[in-house]
Amino acid sequence: MMRRLNPAHWQWPLPAVFAWAACWALFRALLGEGVALSWALGLSSALGVACSLWGPTWWRRLLIAGGFPLSLVVSLSTLGAESLPAWAWLLPLALLLLVYPVNAWRDAPLFPTPPNALEELPAHAPLPLGAHVLDAGCGLGHGLQALRQAYPQAELHGMEWSWPLRLLCGLRCPWARVTRGDIWRANWSTYDMVYVFQRPESMARAVAKANADMRPGTWLVSLEFEATSAAPVAHWRGPGGKMVWLYQVPLPLQPGEIA
Predict the structure, then answer these.
(1) Is-contact 61 110, C-beta < 8 A?
(2) One domain for residues 148 and 232
């Protein structure tokens, strides 16, 4: 029942339509209460950016977040927006960049880990009590929650470049050590396991960093996307339907690959 009520699980483009309608409803309500036009634009655009988390892909998130300000531009003549200061039109872009910084666009903007997706992981990669586990690019904390279910006795760490997402993740996962940082510049050497849910294009980089930073015998885990340059120790389809790829450091290269 809760899944049906979550717009993230609705058929596209229903999440976008719902988000746009909600933004317009908020915008009209704020104007009706006498709120300044620039503030109404900013708050309604912020709602659109928050709703963009429902999108399963980067482009759909852009459509959800950008739908309201774009439709507002088209409607300028009927809304009396001539009183809107020029700088106010930068608010939607600024809000989007806060959540999805430019230097993070090459990675996965936000891929939530499904519940129970990692429940089989301890059977393939047992960890000692108090092991340090990093969710590299933790977003809103879905991966940390799945890791906590798999390794309740581990010390969990999350790293996220977007400071709004880092803040929200810290609130949702107070039992984890969540920091803001660039996962590619961070030192992975202190972790017994690093979990990533990135993009296919990022996996070669993750393999190279794991081999460069991590200690022999430690683990790299990827959800959904295979590191085609390395040979996995194991792989299986999790309860959420996504593949789990498990690699152990040093990651052996596939035949024909050059280190």
Answers:
(1) yes
(2) yes
Q: What is the pLDDT of residues 24-79, one digit of tens each?
A: 889 889 988 888 888 888 888 888 888 888 877 766 787 788 778 777 765 654 44
Which of 48, 65, 99 is at the close of a domain? Answer: 99
Four-residue CA torsion sign, 31, 37, 39, 42: positive
Sole residue written with tokens 């746009």:
20
Residues in a beta bridge with 148: none
- pTM of full prediction above 0.85: no
Structural domain range at position 58: 2-99
Domain of 202, CATH number, reads 3.40.50.150
Q: What backbone torsions phi and psi does residue 251 show, to the nearest 5 degrees?
A: -75, 115
CA–CA distance, 152 with 242 (Å, rounded to integer): 22
Distances (CA, A) of 258 to 133, 181, 184, 209, 253: 28, 30, 21, 15, 7
